[in-house]
Amino acid sequence: MRARTSAGAALAAIGLSLGLSTVPASAAPAAPAVSGASRAPAATTPAAKAPPKSGKDSIKCNESNAKVNFSWKTGWSTTTVYYNDHCLGGTRTTAAFKFYNGGSTPFYKCVTFQGDAQGTYKFAHINEIMDVSKDTKKCKNN
Fold first, then answer.
1. How far is it, in rounded angstroms, from Cα 58 to Cα 32?
2. CB contact at 8 A, 110 and 139
3. pLDDT of residue 4
4. Is 142 exposed, middle or buried (0-12, 13-18, 19+ CB in 10 A)?
5. pTM tops 0.70, yes or no
6. Helix and strand tally (H, E) in the chain?
7. DSSP secondary structure string, 24-52?
8. What does DSSP assign to residue 139?
9. Eight-class DSSP state of 88
10. Beta partners for 123?
11. pLDDT per residue over 2-52, tens digit each?
């Protein structure tokens, strides 16, 4: 039959204690003068905000059924786009990214990607991407 021992008894057997002894009132640390003064408000920390947005989309190449696949993640200071261009023969493809603009008219940014390539592209703003298309006429206005 096995004998059961508690964790406290096992530690005491090797000369250690759990540290549950009482501390005299004179040794206790002083409480802060203002309640909550040592804590930062939760609203000012980045962890309290909603998580960054992400998404994916694709556009077709000009001459074939191949596509350029995109996925993106809006971070705290930039928006990173990951792309995989399946266009054959190194054909360059221009994509128009439609960005959310705080409820007003969306704005567009155009980027050209080399065919048969993959990589990342960073936009230096944190607006959420709403759509990716080949309609580059709207980019001329920005």
1. 56
2. yes
3. 52
4. exposed
5. no
6. 1, 7
7. -GGGSPPPPSSTTTTSPPGGGSGGGSPPP
8. G
9. G
10. 79
11. 455 554 444 444 554 544 445 455 555 555 555 544 454 444 444 434 445
CB count, 10 Å around CB of 118?
Answer: 13
Give the chain's end-to-end CA distance (angstroms, integer).
Answer: 82
Query: pLDDT tens digits, residue range 39-88?
Result: 544 444 444 344 458 899 999 987 678 899 999 998 888 899 999 998 88
Place of tokens 């990607």: 113
What is the number of other CB atoms lying within 10 angstroms of the CB of residue 111? 17
For strand 54-60 and strand 117-123, is the pairing parallel, antiparallel, or unpaired? unpaired
- Quote the Cα angle for 54-59-62, to 5°: 160
* Closest to 71 measured CA to CA, from 91, 88, 95: 95
Structure tokens that stand for 131 in this block: 């759509």
